[in-house]
Amino acid sequence: MSKNMENVAENLIHNIVETVTDTIQHQTSKPEEQNRTSARVKKLFGRQKTIHRIFGGGQSADLLLWRNKKISSSVLTCATAIWVLFEWLNYHFLTFLAFALFVIMLVQFGWSNISVVLNRSTTQVPRVAIPQDVFVNVATSLGAQINQFLNYIQDVACERNLRQFLVVAASLWAAAIIGTWCNFLTVIYVGFVCAHTLPVVYEKYEDEIDEFLYKLLGQVQDRYSKVDVSVLSKLSRGNLKSKKGD
């Protein structure tokens, strides 16, 4: 009887200790969960989707985020080879096109002659053909992007928003300055390399980059508010006074 009472007492004490430890762990885990949720909410531009879903979640996202390292590295290597070929070796597009067509014809000529010697059908010679849908899709997407850009610039010019107008004008001025430093092919190549490196770097160091960019945006907003108070507000007031005078 006494042993049973001792076992019951030990079990009761053990249960009390477990409940106390569980409550303490639960209370300590709450601030950690709140910090995690706040860290998740505090993303760049308030986004809630992953980087993979932002890029569409398909093969293009896999390519940009290096899900398949062989394919991504081969695409970047081909782009680098084309840039080196035209920029460093000073190849012209017509020269490259003529040389590529000559190589294709040479391969087909040799294949057809070898097939005749080996008594095989000449229809087995590989032929290069680009589907028409490729040209239609490229032209449609390119035309849509160009029209969207033109509509945006014209909307900014017609809405009489001085701040937005100055931001777009400064962006175009910066693009013109960059154009004096390098040619159009180099700009496209730099953009291509950035598109294949920056997303994967951001996905790997997401929290550090978000924190740095938030601090940088805070500094930019502080300086912009100072410029707004000292310069832009005076210009807008001057425009209103001139309109009232008219």
UniProtKB/TrEMBL annotation:
The chain crosses the membrane at residues 96-114, 165-192. One of its GO terms (biological process) is response to bacterium. The keyword DNA-binding does not apply. Residues 60-246 form the Reticulon domain. It is found in: Endoplasmic reticulum membrane. This is Reticulon-like protein. Keywords: Endoplasmic reticulum, Membrane, Transmembrane, Transmembrane helix. InterPro entries: Reticulon, Reticulon-like. It comes from Zingiber officinale (Ginger). Pfam families: Reticulon (PF02453). It is a multi-pass membrane protein. GO terms for cellular component: endoplasmic reticulum membrane. The keyword Endoplasmic reticulum applies.
